[in-house]
Amino acid sequence: MAKAKSFADKVAKNTIDFKKHCPKCGEAYANIQLVKAEKSASGSWRFNDRHVAVCKCNDKEVVQ
Ligand SMILES: [Zn+2]
Questions:
Q1: Ligand 1 centroid – CA 55 distance (Å)
Q2: Nearest 5 degrees, angle CA 11-CA 13-CA 16?
Q3: Is the pLDDT of residue 17 over 60?
Q4: How far apart (Å, rounded) are the C-alpha atoms in residues 64 and 61?
Q5: Contact 25/57 with Cβ under 8 angstroms?
Q6: Residues 27-37: pLDDT tens digits?
Q7: pLDDT on residue 34
Q8: H helix count then E strand count, the chain
Q9: Of 8, 13, 11, nearest to 25 (Cα)?
């Protein structure tokens, strides 16, 4: 039976340009882009995107 893999594992397989490893869990960080829609005061929507480093320590928090 296939073992379920974490989101960070999946991303790591598709990401080449990272080299940092988490000092806590030893996993390589996966750099992912989060895009968040936010409504401005004027009522229009804007999208904020940011890159975050994800490992097993924080993938549950970052990827909701
Ligand atoms: Zn970690």
A1: 5
A2: 95
A3: no
A4: 6
A5: yes
A6: 888 888 888 89
A7: 87
A8: 2, 2
A9: 8
Domain layout of the chain by residue ranges: 7-62
Distance 22 CA to ligand 1 centre (A): 5
User: Residues within 5 Å of ion ligand 1 by Cβ?
Assistant: 22, 24-25, 55, 57
Residue 24 CA to ligand 1 center (angstroms) comes to: 5
- Tokens 């397989």 correspond to 13
| Cα 49 to ligand 1 centroid, rounded to whole Å | 22
Exposure string for 28-49, b = 16+ CB within 10 A, e = fewer:
bbbebeeeeeeeeeeeeeeeee
Task: Tell me the C-alpha distance between 57 and 21, whole Å.
Answer: 11
